[in-house]
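For this section, I looked closely at a protein sequence along with its fold in token form, which I now present.
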Amino acid sequence: MDKDLTAYLNGNKNAVLTPLLTVREITPAGIHHITQYLPDVPDPIYEFWYNPKRKPGSNPKHIGGQKPYVKLFLQEVDELRKHGLTDEVAGSLLRLVKYINWNTGVLKKKRSKKPFKFTDMVEVLGLSRSHTIKRIKQFKDLEIIFHTQDGYVITPNLIKKGGL
């Protein structure tokens, strides 16, 4: 491994030039803001926040009594509209929003916290089984929802759940 990259990973350097320029800024609270750039391109291609003090698996279980909200990424919605997102499909998506898990985007039942099954989708969407199958197919075709071993997941680059 390159000695500059090793120094970066050990926290001794805040920037390293690889095929990408990776820059780390550390806030006064010790949280890292990591940004990656292509050489000679001013806009970042990737950025994220990292808290080294946070313990693994310490995801918030609630939003501290605040009113829940969701972030809807409008540019993504506009792109989906170009690829066939209808008001009907968007309305069905809106019915699922309150079941999104805080960090993962997995659709979960309110009380039991178990991942959604097909029968839960039928109930929440208020559609027949055959129409629910079609709607889920529309979601998957538009890459709004995908199914993993954890259950149905709403793509996090479209909607995220949080608190004010």
In short: The domain at 68-163 is CATH 1.10.10.10 (Arc Repressor Mutant, subunit A). The CA atoms of residues 37 and 43 lie 7 Å apart.
